[in-house]
């Protein structure tokens, strides 16, 4: 799947070197928290890009937001954003055709990140997605595993997945607790 991201996202565990690093972090966190102002800004980015790429054929595509950890979280994070996209790009809103059943729980460990999906599944409206050109959207892409799983589910529902749009792509930096991370925190560039 081809992907496009608007920003490079430097996780909190890394030292921010440029002022933009913290601006992008704040933008992503605010989007995840469902702030309407941030949803509007994100929707404007996506709409402008879709209009630039597809012009008046924009309505032939459907944005499908990658399901969050629960139905409540999914609706909170993406409903307002998806409504703006659907309205501005003259496309159908896929939100009412995607449902999260149960809850996905992250179990953080020191060396790895484990996600429990025992009580979690996604329900898609096959009639809605059959033959539809879909662009996957999420706030962040790191390894792409979640997006690929969602792509597989959409294809199983009959959708033609064209690619993925992401606000940010996770990049690596200098760990805050390393020598260089502490050095950067006190450098003249901050």
Q: Your description of this structure?
A:
28% of the residues are buried. The strands form 3 sheets. Strands 1-8-7-2 form a 4-stranded parallel beta sheet, with helices on both faces. It has a two-stranded antiparallel ribbon with strand order 3-6. A two-stranded antiparallel ribbon has the order 4-5. It has one domain: Rossmann fold (3-Layer(aba) Sandwich), CATH 3.40.50. By secondary structure, the chain is α/β, with parallel strands linked by helices. Helix 1 packs across helix 2 (36-54) and helix 2 (36-54) crosses helix 3 (71-88). 39% of the residues lie in helices and 26% in strands. Residues 186-190 have low confidence and may be disordered. The radius of gyration is 18 Å and the shape is globular. The chain is built from 6 helices and 8 strands, in the order βααβαββββαβαβα. The protein has helices spanning 19-32, 36-54, 71-88, 126-129, 145-156, 179-185; strands at residues 3-9, 61-65, 98-102, 105-108, 113-116, 120-124, 133-141, 160-170.
């Amino acid at each position: 799947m081809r992907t496009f991201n608007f920003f490079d996202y430097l996780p909190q565990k890394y030292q921010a070197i440029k002022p933009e690093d913290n601006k992008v972090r704040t933008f992503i966190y605010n989007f995840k928290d469902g702030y309407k102002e941030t949803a509007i800004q994100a929707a404007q980015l996506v709409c402008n890009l879709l209009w630039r790429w597809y012009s008046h054929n924009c309505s032939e595509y459907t944005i499908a937001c990658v399901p969050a950890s629960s139905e409540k979280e999914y609706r909170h994070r993406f409903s307002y954003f998806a409504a703006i996209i659907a309205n501005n790009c003259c496309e159908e809103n896929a939100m009412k055709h995607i449902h999260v059943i149960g809850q996905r729980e992250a179990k953080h460990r020191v060396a790895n990140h484990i996600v429990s999906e025992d009580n979690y599944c996604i329900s898609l409206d096959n009639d809605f997605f059959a033959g539809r050109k879909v662009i996957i959207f999420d706030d962040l892409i790191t390894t792409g595993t979640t997006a690929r799983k969602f792509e597989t589910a959409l294809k199983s529902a009959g959708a033609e997945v064209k690619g993925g749009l992401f606000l940010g792509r996770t990049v690596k930096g200098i760990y805050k607790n390393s020598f260089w991370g502490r050095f950067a925190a006190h450098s003249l560039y901050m």
